[in-house]
């Protein structure tokens, strides 16, 4: 009897091999889209500073079907990220806090915060639009 | 058992990853068509194969009731205990059985767990008393001792770490963790959860001694919170929570070390 343990190689595409890993990659990929979207917004800010022509060109670009798809994908992934973040956050909280408060209040508090912040931003944008 | 088998002629197919270190270059799947018995667990089915079809089939088992943690295997892609997996959940589809991922295969479904045991030991999974701890002054308040010399522990204090103490060392979480496959030096879910369990124990004063392993780059910082370890854990230990609580704590200690540099100067 001789020992000859066999080590299986990790496939390069391991993240495609299991539903749990695929969802993990989807969740993590939200950061790529958020980064690209932030660059887009930053670019818009520079265009705003550069004057009405540059700004209008940037605004027209946002209406491009490809940009609309990009915005929708970013929105979808950001929602996935937000919800998974809120679901995971209570488990990262110190065990003493978790035991005292419970998981649901932490999760709901975070989601509630997101809703409030969004309402404020949308309200400000709407007011800005009418001013 | 044979009576039950005679009463029906339905069968189920099991594909089992086989590896014989003496004759095989690499593992290959072997196929077994066995009688389908509704109340058989996968462990019962493996037992049938070993008794009636191929006595060379190797696998680990002991308690048959999800307590010993011996019969962990990957069933249709998911790490599970053979004893609490039932044929009826799969029938009439076939079942594909592999040894736990991220471990070297010793033979068939038996993996080499020596590295796992070393990792468990590395977190010092025992109560370290203030007297034994290397640091002179205990950081935590010492619990009261009874007249017989043992520390008192209230139910709430037990409740704090109880979840993390339920681990049966089945290694399913190691099989579920892709970071374990990418970085074999990662201390891993169960061992880090065990370290956390002792750090949360009010009788223990050894947190400082565990920090080096827990806060290492191969400790909690090798984890990216895939979270699948906690999903497969048969005892709801939630090792992902244990690991990520330590990341939060580690980040906080690191930030505080700038504000209060002398706090770390022991
Ligand atoms: S933490 Fe859960 S899955 Fe991991 S070894 Fe312990 S009981 Fe098994």
Structure explained in plain terms:
The complex is a heterodimer of chains A (131) and B (266). Chain A has helices at residues 19-50, 52-62, 65-92, 95-101, 103-130. Chain A is flat, with a radius of gyration of 22 Å. Chain A is built from 5 helices and no strands. The mean pLDDT of chain A is 94. In chain A, helix 1 runs antiparallel to helix 2 (52-62), helix 1 crosses helix 3 and helix 3 (65-92) runs antiparallel to helix 5. Chain A has 2 domains: 13-77, Fumarate reductase/succinate dehydrogenase, transmembrane subunit (3 helical TM bundles of succinate and fumarate reductases, Up-down Bundle); 93-131. Chain B is of the alpha+beta class. Chain B has helices at 2-6, 42-53, 114-122, 155-162, 172-176, 178-182, 189-199, 207-214, 228-232, 239-259; strands at residues 11-18, 28-35, 72-75, 78-81, 95-98, 105-107, 110-111. In chain B, the strands form 2 sheets. Chain B has a 5-stranded mixed beta sheet. A two-stranded antiparallel ribbon of chain B has the order 6-7. Chain B is elongated. Chain A binds chain B through residues 1-8, 10, 14-15, 17-18, 20-21, 24, 28, 88, 91-96, 99, and chain B through 19, 21-22, 26-27, 77, 101, 104-106, 112, 156, 159-161, 176, 178, 181-182, 200, 224-228, 231, 238, 240-241, 244-245, 247-249. The complex binds iron/sulfur cluster. Residues 167-173, 189-190, 193, 233-235, 237, 239 of chain B line the site of iron/sulfur cluster (SF4).
């Amino acid at each position: 009897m001789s020992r000859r343990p066999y080590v299986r190689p990790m496939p390069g595409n391991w993240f495609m091999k299991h539903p749990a890993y695929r969802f993990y990659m989807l969740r993590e990929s939200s950061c790529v889209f958020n980064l690209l979207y932030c660059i887009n917004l930053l670019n818009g800010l520079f265009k705003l500073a550069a004057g009405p022509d540059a700004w209008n060109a940037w605004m027209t670009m946002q209406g491009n079907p490809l940009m609309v798809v990009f915005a929708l994908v970013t929105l979808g992934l950001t929602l996935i990220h937000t919800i998974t973040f809120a679901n995971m956050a209570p488990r990262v909280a110190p065990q003493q806090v978790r035991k005292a408060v419970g998981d649901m209040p932490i999760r709901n508090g975070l989601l509630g915060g997101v809703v409030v912040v969004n309402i404020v931003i949308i309200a400000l944008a709407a007011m800005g639009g009418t001013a | 058992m044979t009576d039950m088998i005679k009463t029906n002629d339905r069968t189920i197919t099991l594909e089992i990853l086989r590896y014989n270190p003496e004759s095989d270059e690499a593992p290959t799947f072997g196929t077994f068509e066995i009688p389908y018995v509704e109340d058989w667990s996968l462990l019962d089915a493996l037992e049938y194969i070993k008794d009636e079809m191929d006595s060379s089939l190797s696998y680990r088992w002991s308690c048959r009731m999800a307590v010993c943690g011996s019969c962990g295997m990957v069933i249709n892609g998911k790490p599970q205990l053979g004893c609490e997996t039932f044929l009826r959940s799969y029938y009439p589809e076939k079942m594909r059985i592999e040894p736990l991922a991220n471990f070297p295969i010793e033979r068939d479904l038996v993996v080499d767990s020596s590295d796992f045991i070393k990792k468990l030991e590395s977190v010092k999974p025992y109560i370290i008393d203030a007297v034994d701890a290397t640091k002179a002054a205990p950081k935590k308040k010492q619990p009261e001792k009874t007249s017989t010399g043992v520390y008192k522990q209230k139910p709430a204090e037990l409740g704090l770490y109880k979840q993390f103490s339920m681990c049966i060392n089945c290694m399913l979480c190691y099989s579920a963790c892709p970071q374990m496959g990418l970085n074999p030096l990662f201390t891993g879910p169960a061992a880090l959860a065990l370290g956390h369990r002792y750090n949360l124990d009010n009788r223990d004063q050894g947190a400082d001694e565990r920090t080096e392993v827990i806060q290492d780059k191969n400790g909690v910082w090798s984890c990216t919170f895939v979270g699948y370890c906690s999903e497969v854990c048969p005892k709801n230990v939630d090792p992902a929570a244990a690991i990520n609580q330590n990341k939060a704590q580690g980040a906080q200690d690191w930030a505080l070390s700038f504000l209060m540099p002398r706090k770390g100067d022991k």
